[in-house]
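Quick question, first post here. What does this chain look like in 3D?
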Amino acid sequence: MSSINHVPVESLPPDPNSRMHLVQFYSDDAFLMDTVAQFVASAIAEGGVGVLFATSDHLTGIADRLVARGVNVNSPQMSNRYFAFDAGKTLTKFLIDNAPDAMLFHEYMTATFEQVKVASGMKHPRIAAFGEMVSNLWGDGLKEAALDLENLWNDFSKKYAFALRCAYPARFFRSEDDRDAITRICHTHSHVIPSETFFSRGDESDTLHDEVNRWRSA
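> Answer (accepted):
Ran it through. Tokens below.
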């Protein structure tokens, strides 16, 4: 895992042409919501859109932070620039026997992203997407289903250009077996953003393995 680059949040603007698939590990919900709001606000400021699949608490917190940044997501002007979906409810659209069905996933996401394109009035909108559906699955013990969903997102990105950020709380990874799990998660993404505690240490020789050990002892 030491070969995986750890990338600061501010160095990753949502660039749809790169089809970035980011994963962020976090210890503090407030930090996650701050950085996701920054991610989405950056896209909207550049004329793009935000598409979120998150928990209800995080959707509320992110919306509040966007408003504080001058992006009033509740205004009529933002109805074609900001799209928020409940992660748990969205999962029900394509899960079969607690596993994501590839055909249902592609059908649902195609309809959703076409809706975004039509509403935005742009043929190729700049899309910053944030998803917690994988985190929901992982938290429910459906780890293979979460990894399958990560790979479905990668397949879907071949059809639509967007920057996607996923997020997992550090509390999910406190056993010895989780080292391999984190490696597998990271390898389904193009960029890895470790938790806020990683960057606060300022030690470039650190690896994500070192951080996992701190999560386990927390």
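The first strand starts at residue 21 and ends at 26.
Residues 9-217 form a domain with the Rossmann fold fold (CATH 3.40.50.300).
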